[in-house]
Amino acid sequence: MMVMVLDKGEIIMDILTFLAQNWYVIVVVLVLAFGIYYTITNKQKVKEWLKYAVTIAEKELKSGTGQLKLRQVYDMFLERFPVFSKLVPFSVFSNWVDLALEFLREQLDKNENIKAFVEQV
Question: What is the per-residue pLDDT for 52?
């Protein structure tokens, strides 16, 4: 049985050959990995930011104006996250707003300062 021994030069040439022949695959994998990372990190940022945005919309438009509040928050979202807004379908965004509104309602029941802020004219 014969054992092949590769020297460092052959290993480096094999690696460089592989990279030269498959550079486009490596680029696609890196772009996808960055895209996934960008989406995950921005999703959390948006969900936290929505808590602020629905509070502002509630303060400005008061109750009984659900569709107007959704429109206002969506316009704020488009302005604040222009690239990410192209990746998120409106139905998903609307669900996130609903979750943020639930959070706001809970906070209004628990926290008098938030309630006073929202009710302030």
Answer: 92
C-alpha–C-alpha distance, residues 50 and 42, integer Å: 12
pLDDT digits (tens, 9 = 90+) for 21-42: 988 998 999 998 887 887 777 7
Q: Is the pTM of this model over 0.90?
A: no
Q: Note the residue count of the chain.
A: 121
Measured CA to CA, the distance from residue 107 to residue 110 in angstroms comes to 5
CA distance 37 to 103: 26
Residue 2 is assigned to a structural domain of this protein? no
Domain total of the chain:
1
Dist CA 61 CA 63 (whole Å): 7
Q: 85 lies in a domain?
A: yes
Closest CA to 120 of 50, 53, 55: 55
Contact 100, 53 (CB under 8 A): yes
* Domain assignment of residue 97, yes or no: yes
Asked whether residue 3 is domain-assigned, the answer is: no
